Queue: 4 jobs
Job 1
Amino acid sequence: MKGNKTGTKRVISNIFFGIRYTLKFSPGFIAVALTEGIGRALWHIVQILFLRYFFDAVESGVDFRQILFVLLAYTAYNAVFELFNKWRLNVYVPRARIKLHKCVQSELYKKARSLDLGSYDDPEFYNDFIWAIRESDTRFIDIMDHVGMIVNRVICSAVVLGVLAVIDPVVAAVLFATVAAGFFIKKKITKVWYDCNEEMNPVRRKISYINRLFTLPEYAAELRQGGISAHMRGQNNKALDEYAGILKKTRAKRYSWGFLSRFLMDTFPQAGITGYIIIRFVLDPMFTLGDLSAGISSCFKLFWTLDDISNYVNKFNEHGLYIEKVRRFMETEPKIRGEEKDVPGFESFELRNVSFGYNFGGEEKAVLSDISLKLRRGEKIAFVGYNGAGKTTLTKLIMRLYDVENGEILYNGRNIKDFDPESYRRHIGAVFQDYRIFAASLAENVLGREFTPGDEEKVLSALGAASFEDKLSELPEGIHTQLTTEFSDKGIGLSGGEAQKVAIARVFAGEHELMILDEPSSALDPVAEFELNRSIAENAGDKTLIFISHRLSTTRMADRIYMFEQGRIIESGTHDELMTQNGKYAHMYTVQAKKYLADQLEKG
């Protein structure tokens, strides 16, 4: 995703992208922002004109009641505007921010879920994803606020510039030229900071990761063993040093451009132009006290508004650069696609000469080579082999989390690339090695959604199929017990084996026709593992089961076993057939059986 340059046209296009996105979820925001902008502009203009009127009135001896009437009108306008602005700041904007945050984050999460799993293998994509999540809704809200602000400043500047041009056109021209020069300087500063932030983004992600390690409970035990805690602290210090180094590298540019900007936009106008107006008042008898007041006030107001216009134009440039990340993320389309959404029920599956490899940093790593196999509805299949043999990768191809590079995968005789991935995956349930338990109730963890009263039987049945009844009977609130203590003091933590059973229950609750269980009982001892897998097989009915394991305590119940080694199927058959062949499977099974027997004898 990196490497696209963001030109002026693209920046402007990005701004309108942000405006459209904001209006999609909060259509009233632009009206409120523009009302504030126009109201604020009128407030500045009224202030200048009131001061000029007041001093000229005092100097010329206008009736006091007339001055009082104008003062009351001026005060009334200020009061009405401030009441509106307080409502905007304290009621409308906070409510709009929450709504926009909810909607935009939901869109980003939805988009992230739709993208290919392979996208997360790309560090640049992941950096941009984190950036998009962090910046999106804040940038969209700021754009709408700044639209109102720039309307305010443009109206105010136009009127004040007219007033000042009448009083002294030289001052107006000098101020305009000064601010124009300042605009280009600030644009340069914005680009320096953007490049700096882009370089710091992966460093921030590393610092954030280490921060999570020391705050999440699942890492607490590991951090108290060995030297990993000291190592991660060292990595954190290195990342912070790298962060400081990036800031140091850009320090000279930031300082020099910042100093020049301040001189042009602050020191010169305040000292030079103010002095010029005072000298003119002293030397020019036609220059009234009202002109002096309005001239100085207009000078500072015009400088401030023009300076702000340049600030906001640069802000829009900055927003455009940051929204480019969000926009590229939102416009990224998954490569894994398919048209047909009406996917029929599962009957058969076939892999023909399938090969696949992961791409890390442009370097291909072959994982599977020339895999061919078949399975039919109701069969119980086992993929076995040592870690790294390619078993888990094969299941990800079956689920179409990745697409095969060579060969084809057929579902009911049709290539799975014909089907819409989301619709296709509804027929497949999987428990992966890196399953997760969420900070939600047990029922919600099983269902993968909000619990309704009609779901109770489904949840209990799924937990029963996963052999969770004994633990369930101990839980204080049954299936409504909160898991983890993240948000509830009454939450409970599960052991590794118990958590695995909850993950398995999810598959049964989903009523999938094809079930893939990747090391589903690795946290259990062999006896408990055998009982769990037998329960799974019995409760699966006519569903098709794929067991993946490097432990062979359950392979006897499989209709067919595939032995993997270095990304290839080296043996296949029933347990008895493979034992008769006396090959790799038989050796692996015998070694494990001896180890189990030795452990039992040692326990006495």
Job 2
Amino acid sequence: MFSRRQFICNFVPVKHSTLFHTLVFLLFALCARGQALWDTLTPYPKEELRAVWLTTLGGLDWPKTKTISTASRERQQRELCDLLDQLKSSGINTILFQTRIRGSVIYPSSIEPWDIALTGQYGQDPGYDPLAFAIREAHLRGMELHAWVVSVPAFKTDIARKMGPKSLFATHPKLLRKHSGMYYLDPGEPATAEYIASICAEIAGNYDVDGIHLDYIRYPEQASSFPDGSTYSRYGKGQAKADWRRSNVTHIVEVTRQAIRSLKPWLKVSCSPVGKYRDTRRYSSRGWNAYDAVYQDAKAWLRLGYMDMLFPMMYFTGDHFYPFLLDWGEGNGDRLVAPGLGIYFLSPKEKDWDLSVITRELQCSRSVRLGGQAFFRASFLTDNVKGLRDYLSQSFYAFPALVPSCPWLDSEPPTAPASCSRADVDSQMTELTWQSSTDNLPEGGVRYNVYASPSWPVDVSRAENLVATYLSEPHYSYNRLLGLNLAITAIDRCGNESEALQAGGGYSFASQSEGQSLHYMPHDGQSLSLPPMPEAEYYMVTDLIGRTILTGKWAEHVDISSLPRGIYRLRTLQKRGVSRPVGEFRK
């Protein structure tokens, strides 16, 4: 007999069938019965996109401080580091970092001017390279950084002349069209594709980004009044205007993709289409969709290989969300789709959504295995609006996850790490060093993941054993007193992971025979019984990374009612810092 988890996981991925749609609506109905039931349906994945849009437009997420001096520049940098720390601790593994805003950028460009958000003035150098800084800091924290490029919009008409000699208004005025108080690039002009591609090529060629994320790669709202009639007359060649417009946007995507690929074939290309692709058989998009309203044929971009992943902007609820979520999963060619969730609507200043709106959408997106989730935008996550950050860090993202692999870019894993050695740093910490791995993509680079477990060998398929991700150097420091065995894998820029180097390293478990492991200690969710250990004076409860969660005098029972979901380790704690492992328990 199938469990609920087996039922959902085994049958939901079926495509193009009545059963598929029936089960989706069953999932939708189940989510109304409460979070606890959903939590039983969705196991923790080892690979999952967990992305957030980090907005620099107007300093909405960052920067809050304008850099006008050395001290203010350092404050601006500390702000970003603090933000990245909070996102990392929330479980995020991918930063969509707004790099081109609207005709201006946050790196030293030969094409466009500096954005106003950095210094308070367009065209003013902030005294450092924010994009290079952001990439380095994200990578130090084991997160990918994708350069978010706002594509078609330029700037408001009233600031066009204030942006200086590098402004599109000065360099390429014939590509611009006025529409609803803004200047936009005209997608129908052949040179528009080359211009957008040149911005992306400048970023890809000069920076160690993990991907390029194209935003607003479409026609603007109220597209029926967009003034491209003369462009259509010159280039339409008898096509229906809607088809011509879609082909224009697709051409921009194709040219941009080719420009990026010619420089770095491993870079991931993504975009954020409007959240509803088209009307479904049963649900209308009510006039607002990607295909008909703004001429984005985003599903075709997946099929044609122009996109590696999509982050559709699904800032909706109910039947505006769930049917269209499943529609994105059909015909995606096994590429990645991570629905963008409108967490800003949790704010009382917006729509004041209940947290359950987002948690149910999260659970459903994981259940149907689209690839992950994304959040708009960063501050609403780091501000813990309605407790969202707590829910992610303590429950939904209780364990780390790797960014899913992209085997269509490259499917050959790097060589496995080898020849590990250890050196004690102090009375507790040991540094493990191993031989560097090599990759078949000579410029792509290799990074490393570290797994830890009391079991031998360490099971590297389990998310709960993953303790460090995307290390750039072949060494790692750990607390040997925790009694854990370690395993190290190499991972390339396309997400291919090598065989594991089983490094051992535990204080008391390293000599275990193969397959032996500790059993989870039983408990009732409120109280954990401690075994009789006359020599034990105190207990210590740690998480999988080794952080101390609880301590106290050794007794018959320990109150664990306040602990969030997760796996914990119990140890004795004696005089002079002597500690011994007792067991693990899962809550």
Job 3
Amino acid sequence: METGTSAIFEMDKKLVYMMGVRPILRKNVLFSDGTEDYRSPSEPKTGDTVTIRFRTARNNVDSVWLCMKDQTISMELETQEESFDYYACRIPVGEDNIQYYFKITTGFLVCYYDRRGVSRDIRPEYAFQIVPGFSTPAWAKGAVMYQLMVDRFFSGDLENDVLDREYSYIGVYSQAVKNWNKYPAEFDVAEFYGGDLQGVIQKLDYLQELGVEAIYFNPLFVSPSSHKYDIQDYDYIDPHLGVIVEDEGEILNEGDQCNTHSTRYMNRVTNKKNLEASNQLFIHLVEEAHSRGIKVILDGVFNHCGSFNKWLDREGIYEGKEGYPSGAYMTADSPYRNFFHFHNEQAWPNNGSYDGWWGHDTLPKLNYEGSRELYDYILGIARKWVSPPYNADGWRLDVAADLGQSPEFNHKFWRDFRRVVKEANPDALVLAEHYGDPGDWLSGDQWDTVMNYDAFMEPITWFLTGMEKHSDEYRGDMRGNFRNFKNSMGHFMTRLLTPSLQCAMNELSNHDHSRFLTRTNHKVGRAAQLGCEAASQDVDRCVFKEAVVFQMTWPGAPTVYYGDEAGVCGFTDPDNRRTYPWGREDLDLLRFHKEIIRVHKKYEALRTGSVKFLDGQDDVICYARFNRREQFVIILNNDTVSRSLDLSLYPAGIPKECEMEQVIYTTGKTFSTVPVHYEVKQWHLQMFLPGRSALVLRRV
């Protein structure tokens, strides 16, 4: 019940003091964060007035203060509910960033509250922060994403398949894999399974039924490899994924690896009719995806390109072709000469002295500092693909921190990149691949968010499996270590502003690391040493389901790596790039994914609500997701044996006496959505949870 007056609150306190009783400060109930309930508007602009709120237990504190750099403001009691008091104050938003924390007093007791929670001391590094004008797209907050490597997903067009000996790459011939179920070779950059955009279009209904809200495509642009992180032409979709209208020329003869003879490949990737038709197919794909409510995110590989790239043209693919100037490898007179940094100015023709990313000559590093033309060209590419008629909904940025030769230049580039992308499409997402602290790029003027390794993939992998994300190490001291898990999550989540955290890409698996299901078998190594079969041996689907429950109930954008939902296993790349197992899916895992995705999408608290740990011990995690209207409790028991739990739900904003309803429950080899009810008394919930299980409860 709400009274809405400070007077009644003060009267209640005086009665308590007259009785000679001092209330105990309920520190575990103190709460605030950057969500809409506690900061309104949650993404304020310059000129706005923002309301900041802080929650305490009812009648439990004397005062709450909002502390900023040059000002301390007394917060007033705004509302009083049955169990909680909400304090509030309003502050104007100027052009400068605002950092703040809270000071709470009860009698002689003083404590502070920041993004890590309650503290005896002021911790500036964990202060809340408002960046005026910074926002992330509403559609991306909590969006269910699906990472898709097109070649390995589904083939819808047999006429565009890469041919055997169509060309040579890194000393091997291109090869069309005839057996869809074949494991990837140890060196599979020139192996192609035939998946394409037409295949994706044919499977959009499947993705819609699964519950996908955004597709993140691994690179689609013209490239010689199967992974396509060696871009050949940023202006066009690869016709091997798109459409081949005119198909002329010859493949290489056995023993001949000179790509100037690969006339079939040349025609396929330089013929403007093929290139334009492929771009048109992409336009159609985006239209079909959008009609189903699915966004499209492209992979932007802008730190480096490929040695086949038309600007370098080390293979002679473009030399002499109409409309294509000579590449910088061929001649110093190339208009692209400054797109690359050459160390030997006397080496032309065939100058191989250019910088390669990590020394790889197949991945020439782009020389932005030396070429304004390159700088502007790539910004034009950034703008082009999020604008009509292509209308992509964002970029994922490959090795984004590596771009350029200095941190200062890197930040300048990404500021300009963000500007042109947001001018073209204000709702486009700018999401970067990054390992380590991303704070320098997430200050509101560069990236929107990141692939969430530090505050998602790594901590949950260590806790549930004890495995390193490449399956390169097993550590028993990390498995089930709740203290390490909580501290890691608590620290690394503060490196992201709340708008960034809400759309951070939360993946369990991806194209760079072992499949999560494989990590559950604790086998240390890679396919080359252990064999591909070992990746699916002794896996634990119960642990995998725990991980998926966590993924779908933790703040961020839960991102499913294609095939994870169907039980695909695999060691780190390239073994993790197996094909989708059409007709051989693990149907239980597939049904489970559909249900937990449905739950995630149904409730706003699971998309943008607050999060708070309620309890934790070795092998057990318990946390709440909540807003003022919805409250959820999630429990993971990763032990092999059952646990009896006595949980205090008070910090979750749950009433003193209420019922909790089971939303989904996983155990053994099954799961349940039967709505079992649990009674909460005096904020406590007592329950029994079997080993290797997960439970999601909703307050009714």
Job 4
Amino acid sequence: MKKKEYNNESITALKGAERVRKRPSVIFGSDGLTGCQHSVFEIISNSIDEAREGYGSKIEIIRHANGAVTVKDYGRGIPVDYNTAEKAYNWELLFCELYAGGKFDNNEEENYSYSLGLNGLGLCATQYSSEYMDVVVVRDGFEYNLHFEKGENVGGLLKNPATTQQTGSTTTWRPDKEVFTDTAIPLEYYCDTLNRQAVINAGVLFVLTDEETEKTFDFYYKNGLLDYINQLSGETPNETLDNNAENPENPENPENPEKNELDLNETNENPKKAKKSAKKPLTTPHIMRHETKGRDRADKPEYKLKFEIAFCFSNTENRLEYYHNSSFLEYGGAPDKAVRSAFVSAIDSFLRSNSHYKKDEKRIIFADIEDSLILIVSSFSTVTSYENQTKKAITNKFIQDAMTEFLKKQLEVYFIENKSDANTLAAQVLVNKRSRETAEKTRTTLRKKLTGTLDLNNRVEKFVNCRSKDVAMRELYIVEGDSALGSCKLGRNADFQAIMPVRGKILNCLKADYDKIFNSDIITDLLRVLGCGVEIKTKHKVDLNVFDLTQLKWNRIIICTDADYDGFQIRTLILTMIYRLVPTLINESKIFIAESPLYEINIGKKVLFAYSEKEKSDIIAKHESSAKSPQKVKIQRSKGLGENEPEMMWQTTMNPATRRLIRVMPTDIDKTQQMFEILLGDNIKGRKEFIEDFGYKYV
């Protein structure tokens, strides 16, 4: 096929709605779901700007079942009539012209001094990207109606006398699937977005109606940031706030011998389980406010800035959130840089001046503070430099400098006036710092211990590998002791079955700390054989994960222990280790338990195995009812694995066609965790109560 010539006639310009419909990601940051969500926020933000100016304290949003959205406010109403200065109708400028709006002179005029919509893009771009849009405006005693289809107006402006004195704007539209690859905005997005907006727009009520679930959600914070940080820290219980009680995202307002499954949660719940005590912050929530003026560069215009910062310290929660002109700054930018610089400087100075550091101890970093910091920053400026139209970060140098200077001074005053809180947060920051340093050391040690190749024969004592390199075939038997190693080794299929002996009872990994766990040769050897690393869950954000499921060397990991008290205990300790260090292996159905027979039943020359008392009774009853002549029946308790003949091991425990495996599947991770904690953790009182209530069932 001949290539088209590239010449002067090759250059074209997109016009009208095509500027957005063909390139939505330029305006919305994406042509997928995130871009579609941002288009919705553009309309909501216009109503927020009105409310911030003092016009209307309620905004209603409807999530329609057909994918459409309605946003209604009680502001002054969008000016849509004829504009003599521009010699055009305002509806044409606002809905059909990019870079048209009433917020460009916000630094000189009082209207929209602190506004979300500064670029004059959102309203028009959302209209252009919609399948249809209907607009109803009430202002100046008239009701105005507009209808658009795929970016084009249909029918012009309809103007009639208003039947109500209540002014405001109502916009209903459906994002176009020809523009966005995904328009199915989930309810969670609306709940999260509106809750955030309620936080930073104190006293504004957001009402969300969801037609799909037929539920209504209210989002409201009378005192804004202060209510929110009290809620996050636990200082004020959620139910005392006027928030979304129903918000789902916010609590405020053979055939197959391996088909059997073991659910780690199939046990009785402890009715006496104590309720968790309400979380409390380490320090009292504190709020600071400031207003100032400045410029980003000497030759740039001066602009106004105001901000409020609420924070507290906690040993259970950590969160940083930044907002500017009501827009959530996912990446922060200037305010985040200010917070990091000021907090490190102020707290480091406090630690040094009060001799909290050990001799030659390294200086704290922000990660040590962030681990226990709950902080919300809401700023407003009349000039804003966003990184792009999606408004996820701001870059104003003056905002960064002003916040940094203010925070440093205010934190110094705060430490003096709140000595007890200052000492508490300082101690917690040092705990975080030392935990991080220990964790980093542990991580380095772990990488050295766990790194290795597939051939582990010469690296792990007594481990017996298999021949196959195909992970989809490979099975690892974790067996109890050297004697079981011998019988399993002789009874296995060496092509795909490997053996790893565990010498005695391993550590209780729920009670031991990580240093003790990784100093255990048994555990580190087993982790090395698994090959996938470990998953370490630390208190806050210290990341010690060296886990990679793709590096797992086995399709099945089979725990094989004696059917006696010691065997059950060893099995439980191995399961506990897996649960704490590599829980994904349970979730991915990689962990199995090999059932060992309880009884060997000899009937004449035939040998049968019973795995329970009931099976033993059934076998004997079946023989007695069907036997034509009496045959000698010999029943003996099955020996330990190490005493079994290789042929018996193959038949009962290792042959895929005849063995019985129990797949370990925690269908409810919370209940699993509760039971592990009760039976093997530090909850001694809970364990005693559980035994009192349910022990008789296991005796």
